[in-house]
């Protein structure tokens, strides 16, 4: 699944620069994650960087965009053609 930023967001911006896919951007009152670009950091990091830096814990899995590990990897390959993944075997899906 891709991730989503909930209404609890305090608009601090800590997450935006952490996204390797540039999927996070500022909206009017909160930040948003573009589901088409979110790979849950698969291919880059062991954990989801936006979740790790969020001070208010407002970035859960997006139930409207369920994806398997294989689908996330296909999205990574589409976003980064020809770039081999840096972290793949140690990547952990976030808890639901």
Brief synopsis:
This protein is of the alpha+beta class and 96 residues long.
Summary tags:
Alpha-Beta Plaits
Description:
The mean pLDDT is 92. A hairpin with a 4-residue loop joins strand 1 and strand 2 (31-33). By secondary structure, this protein is an alpha+beta fold. It has a two-stranded antiparallel sheet with strand order 1-2. It has a single domain, classed as Alpha-Beta Plaits (2-Layer Sandwich), CATH 3.30.70. It is built from two helices and two strands; from the N terminus they run E-E-H-H. It is globular. It has helices at 49-53, 69-79; strands at 24-26, 31-33.
The average pLDDT score comes to 92
Stated plainly, the CATH topology is called Alpha-Beta Plaits
Q: So, CATH architecture?
A: 2-Layer Sandwich
User: Given the C-alpha coordinates, what overall shape results?
Assistant: globular
Strand content: 5-15%
Largest sheet: 2 strands, antiparallel
Number of strand segments: 2
Briefly note the structural class of the backbone.
Answer: alpha+beta
Low-confidence stretches: none
Radius of gyration from the CA trace?
13 Å
Topology, element by element:
Layout (H helix, E strand, L loop, with lengths): L23 E3 L4 E3 L15 H5 L15 H11 L17
Antiparallel strand pairs: 1-2
